């Protein structure tokens, strides 16, 4: 092997590190904000339901634009899309850190979501292109998966440390040097590639329809606590959301180059796995978002203590998603592992529904977060494999984008529903004369019960909708490997 060839091979691994650094910044941002939410609420005067928009303003554009960003990367070049996304995300992070009012923070978070979608949508495609040999590709994707999972752990700790030691503004400022270094290194080491050209077409109108429909839908749910579920405001905006989503569905069935071809959702396992992911992420978000508020408002935890309290979840997901999950999937099949993992998450959420006013971490919090970490670490790899199992070579990129989209949308919609229900319950009890701590705890308990119900529904769907992979016997045995691209 020549020195030049060896150097090119080594530069690919350096390029992988740069791509993973960009992904780490995006993943980290998703959890680092959760720990700082109470401080943001106190500083900027958010209501509890309004505070959900600090998260949703990021999640909605991120989830809604992933498919379009991935497709645009194919058309114009994936490196160009990645670099553009880094710039948008970094500038928006600076604006988030500088925000002194609710409107600027929410607007900047929306732009952050746009930049995050632009960068994240093309990273896996770039990794697969750089590492075409199967063994190297598996190792490269393993590194990427570990970084994506570890980002949750780092975000929880970093959020607590920065908020406690300096201020919540620095959870956004920290992205600026990371984004700048990642951009400069990516220009040097990430190989450039030509896109297939704009003539292949990108469904911009479809992306606008689905993003607007989701945004209005979440707004409707959040504001239902103020206007009432049967009010004209709720019914009008809810109908508008449904009409936009219906228009998106009709457009996908009729145009030549749809953003989401109907044939993908016609696959029972793919559709079922994605729906299960919406329910699972929506249920688990109740613990991260409202659990943080419970620990701070009811139990009196500071930001660093909140980050440490949730660490077992991130550690469990990060550790098991790389090791034990692959062996268990090979031994018992993905569907069987997924059902068991969902049950662990369900038990964890059910335990969290106790949420006492005088709760103790070791008895009232630690069992729940540990079970949910183990369950999440086993559920997400199995669920992703099932969601990709029906993908053909030409559909694998779109199917991968769909998996990312349903994860983000599930979190946004789940958070909107659960935060609204929790706020309504708390306000009702406060009006009736209940003590503030007990009223808040009761609202959180209701949200945790609803989250548990969502995961229970996911268990039923896993048992009834998902097909047992070919090659398994009675749910136990070696599944036939699926040749799935990314």
Automatic annotation (TrEMBL):
Protein name as catalogued: MFS transporter
GO molecular function: transmembrane transporter activity
Membrane topology: Multi-pass membrane protein
Membrane-crossing segments per the record: 12-37, 49-69, 81-100, 106-128, 140-162, 168-190, 202-222, 228-250, 271-294, 306-324, 336-353, 365-388, 409-426, 446-466
Keyword Transmembrane: yes
Naturally occurring in which organism (per UniProt): Actinophytocola xanthii
Compartments, record wording: Cell membrane
Alphabetical list of InterPro entries matching this protein: EmrB-like, MFS, MFS_dom, MFS_trans_sf
Primary subcellular site in the record, as a coarse category: membrane
Keywords annotated in UniProt: Cell membrane, Membrane, Transmembrane, Transmembrane helix, Transport
Phylogenetic classification of the source organism: Bacteria, Bacillati, Actinomycetota, Actinomycetes, Pseudonocardiales
